[in-house]
Design goal:
668 residues, mainly alpha, Arc Repressor Mutant, subunit A, two-stranded parallel ribbon, two-stranded antiparallel ribbon, 33 helices
Length: 668
C-alpha cells in the first residue's frame, strides 16, 4: 500500500458532482449566481454530496450557496458530518436562527388558524414548542383540524399537548376513524412519493370506491392533501403513521409496494427505495431487481448508489450460483469508491466463479483495484495465474468467445506491470508481441495502443510509431470500458511530448468527459493531473494549479502522489515553494527513500526541483542523479519522459566546477 485505503464513506458520484460544479461555475462566470437549497437533510445522498463538493470549491467564484439544514436528534454520524463539513469550509458563514419571538409565534399562529390568537394562547404555543417553527407548525396543524381558534379558552387544552404528543394525537384521531381510513393512511405512508389513490387501494387491499372514500376522509381531516399524487400535510404526520407500523410489517409492505410498482412498469429508481427497505428473504426477484437498479445507477454515473443496491442484494442473499456475479458487480462499483474493500469482494468473487468469461472479467476488475492500492506486483501475479487458465491458451488456439476478455487482461497486465520495477520485465515480451501484431495490421484494444505509445516514447526509438499508437488510443477512447488505468491519459502525454498540443488537449477533455459521465473519480483525477502538466507546459500556471487541485481529490490512491509531483513545478513558478514543500511532506515524499514504483520517480524529480529552488543544490543533485540511475533500470531513455539530466545540470552549476561529479552526469 502506498497510502491508507479509501474509507467506505469516500463516495462521490463524479458524473454528477463535477459536471454540476462546472455547470455552476460556467453560469457564475457569466452572471452572479445564487443557489438556494432548503432542507438539505431531506435530499438524497448524491444531492447532499454535490452541495458539500461545491462548498469546497466556491472560493473565487461569484456564486452564493445558501443552504438550510436541520439536523434531527436521531441523525447518524454521516448526517452530522454533512452538516459540520459544509459549515467548516473556510468561506462558510453559519447562521443559526434563534427561536421564534413572541411576535413571530403570534404571526404563525394567526396564519395557520385563520385569526389572531389571544396573547395567552400565543404565549403558550411559544412555551410548549420553544419557538421551534417545525414543532409549532405541526402542533398548529393538529389544533386547526380540531377547530381550535386560538382564544384564552383553548389554552388549557393546548397545555395538555406536547410536541411528542402530536404523533399520539394523530394516531388517536386515526383510531377513531373507520378501519379502511387507517389502512389507506398506512398505505400512503409506505408509498411515500409514489402514493396515489389507486396504489394506496391496491396496497391496502381496498376496492377503488372504498379507497377513494377513505382518502376523502383523510383529506377532510386535513391529514392528507394532493390531487394526482397524495402526501401528508406535514412530515410529522407521515412519520407518526409510518412509525406506528412494526418493523416487520413495514418491510413486508415495502416489498409489496415494489412488486406493485414493478407490475405497473415503474422506473427502476422508483422501486429502489422500497427494495432497500424490504426484509431480506432470499427472494431471487428482489436480487434481480436490485442488480438492475445498480446497473441503472452505474449507467447514470452513480457507483455509490450502485454499491448500496448491490450490498442489499448480497444481504438478500442471492442464490449460490449468482453470488460470484453479484460480488463482481459490487466490487467493480466499489473500486472507484473504496478500492481496499473492493479487493476483498472481488477476491471472493474470483474464488467462487468457475466459468469464462466471468473469471477474466473479475480478474481485470481485481487487478485494477489492487493497482489503485499500490499492490502492483500482487495484481500482476493474479492476472498471470488467471490468464493461464483461459481455455485454448495452452495449445495456442484463440478462444473466440473470450477474446475480448483476453485483450482486456493483456491491457491491464501491461499497464500494471510497467508501474513496478519488480514486474517491469513482464512488459518487454508483451510489447514485442504487440508491436509485431500491430505491424501485421491486427486490431488492438485502445489501451494496448496507449501502452505501446508509452513504451516507444520512453525508449526514444520511434517517434512516428509512438504518435501513431497514441492517436489510435485517443481516437478510440469512447470504446473503453475500464477507466481506472493511466494508459490513455499517458497516451495524451505522449502527444504533448511530441508537440501535438492541440490533440493532447482534445484527448484529455474527452477522457475527463467520459470519466465524469461514468462516475469514475479516480480516472477523472488522473486526467486532471495530466491536464495540469499540459497547462504547465503551455505556461498557464493558474490553470495548471487549478487542474492539480482537482487531481488531489484522489487522495487515497497513488494518483495523489502523481498529482502532487506534477503540481510542484507550477507552484515553484508561482513563487510558492513552501506550499510545494508542505504538499510533499504531507504525503511522505519530502525525505527518505521512495518505493520502486513509477509514481515515485516523478515525485523524486519534483523533490529534486524543489530542493534546487530552495538553494539546497547538494540534496537536489543527489535526488536527480539517483533518479537517473533508476531511470536506466526502468528503460526510460528518452530525456523528454523525465528531464532529470537538465535538472541535475542546473542543480550542479551553482556548486562550481570543483564540486561537480562530472562522471555521474554522463548520459548513458
Amino acid at each position: 500500500m502506498l497510502t491508507k485505503p479509501a474509507g467506505p464513506g469516500d463516495e462521490d458520484s463524479y458524473a454528477v458532482l463535477h459536471g454540476l460544479y462546472w455547470l455552476a461555475a460556467d453560469i457564475a462566470q457569466r452572471v452572479p449566481l445564487l443557489l438556494a437549497i432548503d432542507d438539505l437533510q431531506w435530499a438524497d445522498g448524491p444531492s447532499q454530496r454535490f452541495a458539500a463538493y461545491l462548498a469546497r470549491r466556491i472560493e473565487g467564484l461569484p456564486l452564493l450557496l445558501a443552504v438550510t439544514i436541520r439536523e434531527p436528534r436521531s441523525a447518524t454520524a454521516q448526517d452530522k458530518a454533512l452538516t459540520s463539513g459544509i459549515g467548516a469550509e473556510p468561506g462558510a458563514r453559519t447562521l443559526r436562527p434563534g427561536p421564534l419571538s413572541a411576535e413571530g409565534c403570534a404571526r404563525l399562529v394567526a396564519g395557520t388558524l385563520g385569526q389572531p390568537p389571544s396573547p395567552a394562547f400565543s404565549g403558550a404555543c411559544q412555551e410548549l414548542t420553544g419557538g421551534n417553527p417545525l414543532l409549532l407548525h405541526g402542533l398548529l396543524t393538529t389544533l386547526r383540524a380540531e377547530g381550535v381558534v386560538g382564544g384564552d379558552a383553548d389554552v388549557p387544552h393546548l397545555r395538555r399537548l406536547t410536541p411528542e404528543s402530536v404523533s399520539r394525537h394523530v394516531l388517536l384521531r386515526l383510531g377513531r376513524l373507520p378501519e379502511p381510513v387507517l389502512a389507506a393512511a398506512r398505505a400512503i405512508a409506505v408509498l411515500g412519493t409514489s402514493a396515489t389513490t389507486a396504489r394506496a387501494g391496491r396496497l391496502a387491499g381496498l376496492d377503488e370506491r372504498a379507497c377513494a372514500d377513505a382518502v376523502g376522509v383523510l383529506m377532510a381531516e386535513q391529514l392528507v392533501t394532493g390531487e394526482m399524487s397524495l402526501r401528508f400535510t406535514h412530515p410529522l404526520v407521515r412519520s407518526a403513521v409510518y412509525q406506528d407500523l412494526s418493523a416487520p410489517v413495514r418491510q413486508q409492505r415495502h416489498k409489496a409496494t415494489a412488486r406493485l410498482l414493478a407490475a405497473e412498469g415503474a422506473s427502476v429508481g422508483e422501486l429502489t427505495t422500497h427494495l432497500l427497505a424490504a426484509a431480506a428473504e432470499g427472494d431471487p426477484w428482489v436480487v434481480d431487481r436490485l442488480r438492475a437498479a445498480a446497473a441503472d445507477a452505474r449507467g447514470r454515473g452513480a457507483p455509490d448508489v450502485a454499491a448500496q443496491c448491490l450490498d442489499r442484494a448480497l444481504a438478500e442473499p442471492p442464490a449460490a450460483c449468482a453470488r460470484a456475479e453479484v460480488l463482481y458487480e459490487l466490487g467493480s462499483a466499489r473500486t472507484f469508491l473504496a478500492p481496499a474493500t473492493a479487493i476483498d469482494q472481488l477476491s471472493e468473487a474470483l474464488a467462487l466463479a468457475d466459468g469464462w468469461p466471468l473469471r477474466g472479467q473479475i480478474a481485470v476488475a481485481l487487478g485494477e483495484a489492487l493497482a489503485l492500492c499500490g499492490r502492483f506486483a500482487q495484481a500482476v501475479a493474479m492476472i498471470q495465474r488467471t490468464s493461464a487458465e483461459l481455455p485454448g491458451t495452452a495449445d495456442g488456439e484463440e478462444p473466440g468467445e473470450t477474446s475480448g476478455v483476453l485483450a482486456s487482461m493483456q491491457a491491464v497486465l501491461l499497464n500494471i506491470a510497467r508501474w513496478d520495477l519488480s514486474t517491469r520485465t513482464v512488459t518487454r515480451p508483451l510489447v514485442e508481441e504487440l508491436l509485431a501484431s500491430a505491424e501485421q495490421g491486427t486490431a488492438l484494444d485502445p489501451q494496448l495502443h496507449a501502452n505501446l505509445a508509452i513504451e516507444l516514447t520512453v525508449a526514444g526509438t520511434d517517434r512516428e510509431r509512438a504518435l501513431l499508437h497514441a492517436r489510435g488510443a485517443v481516437r478510440a477512447a469512447s470504446r473503453l470500458m475500464s477507466l481506472t488505468s493511466t494508459a490513455l491519459p499517458e497516451a495524451v502525454l505522449v502527444l504533448s511530448l511530441a508537440d501535438a498540443g492541440r490533440e493532447a488537449w482534445a484527448g484529455v477533455a474527452e477522457w475527463q468527459d467520459i470519466a465524469r459521465r461514468r462516475g469514475r473519480p479516480v480516472a477523472a483525477a488522473i486526467a486532471a493531473s495530466i491536464a495540469s502538466h499540459l497547462a504547465a507546459r503551455d505556461g498557464d500556471i493558474r490553470q495548471s494549479l487549478a487542474f492539480g487541485e482537482q487531481a488531489l481529490a484522489a487522495e487515497d490512491t497513488w494518483v495523489a502522489i502523481l498529482a502532487a509531483a506534477f503540481l510542484v513545478p507550477p507552484l515553484l513558478d508561482a513563487g510558492e515553494p513552501e506550499q510545494a514543500r508542505e504538499m510533499l511532506a504531507k504525503r511522505g515524499l519530502l525525505t527518505g527513500d521512495l518505493l520502486p514504483v513509477f509514481p515515485f520517480n516523478v515525485a523524486k524529480y519534483a523533490r529534486g526541483c524543489l530542493h534546487a529552488a530552495c538553494g539546497d543544490y547538494r540534496t537536489a543533485l543527489g535526488d536527480l542523479l539517483s533518479l537517473g540511475a533508476e531511470a536506466a533500470r526502468w528503460g526510460i531513455v528518452n530525456p523528454a519522459a523525465i528531464a532529470w539530466r537538465s535538472a541535475a545540470a542546473l542543480s550542479d552549476a551553482p556548486r562550481g566546477a570543483a564540486a561537480a561529479p562530472r562522471k555521474a552526469l554522463t548520459i548513458q
